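Reminder to self: keep the SMILES exactly as supplied, no canonicalising. Ligand is guanosine-5'-triphosphate.
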Amino acid sequence: MSNIQWFPGHMAKAKRLVCESLKLVDVVIELLDARIPISSRNPMINEILGSKPRLIVLNKSDLADPVVTSKWQQFFKNSNIECISVNSVKGQGVSQIPTIVKNLACKGSENTKRRGFSKIVKCMVVGIPNIGKSSLINRLSKRKSAKTADKPGVTKGKQWIKMEGMMLLDTPGILWPKFDDPEVGMKLAVTGAIKEQVLDIEQVALYLLNILYVKVPNKLMERYKLDKLSEDRFELLIQIGRKRGLLLGGGVVDTQKAAVLLLKEYRSGKLGAISLEEPEDIEVV
Ligand SMILES: Nc1nc2c(ncn2[C@@H]2O[C@H](COP(=O)(O)OP(=O)(O)OP(=O)(O)O)[C@@H](O)[C@H]2O)c(=O)[nH]1
Ligand SMILES: [Mg+2]
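Structure tokens returned for the bound complex:
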């Protein structure tokens, strides 16, 4: 498996922006992908945040297995970090955030400064590209102030958005310079955090196909109307392409198009709500 590397100049800038803004805020919302809570956790952000009060929000919970998501919530709570799960598009779970953030801000000001904090709580939302930071802010503020789109790198600078009792800071998504584990890069690619231009889409689709084959073979059979799944992953991709009529000349399957289709269907939940990692898979926290 080749290692995806992705840390263009604008990400270094985004990291500086998060560092500088940290001084200005009472609380940080660390947004993670409910399907890959560990792989979507930026180790750099963890260092930057230090002891700042934080809430972990597992977003895109509609695309993850709810049983696995509950386990993740417990996993973070066991490490004394507040954690909830939400769907920022439909709004599920979002209404609990203001109260939790205000409580965290109160605690933070008692412990660190021994003085009150301003009534307006300042909260920064951080996370990897395309995770849903701007969508969450729009949901919380009940306005479409922040630009959102189904691709990474949409928010370029910081933007403060006001809501009742709170100021929210939207930030650009940040990845880190090197993925020590190539699987982390693959999972980020599968879920859409890395720009497609730098990816080998077929390789990413084969990685996903491997997980789906092991975890949810029935869902693959149902979705693509396959009686039997080929054990060879590339053959399986060909089976899917053929079923969907994605052919080049001479009846040859266009595996590139099949790869794009599989990723698109997984990302939009058409294959079901499927988590790609579980707390049991993680050896070291
Ligand atoms: N299914 C689902 N899609 C979501 C959810 N939250 C956000 N999205 C989608 O994810 C895509 C990215 O959302 P954004 O809010 O632009 O993400 P961002 O983190 O601000 O991205 P950058 O600004 O590029 O770093 C959009 O297509 C959203 O509709 C969610 O809870 N569930
Ligand atoms: Mg954004």
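Points to follow up:
Residues 97-113 form the longest helix (17 residues).
DSSP finds ten helices and six strands in the chain.
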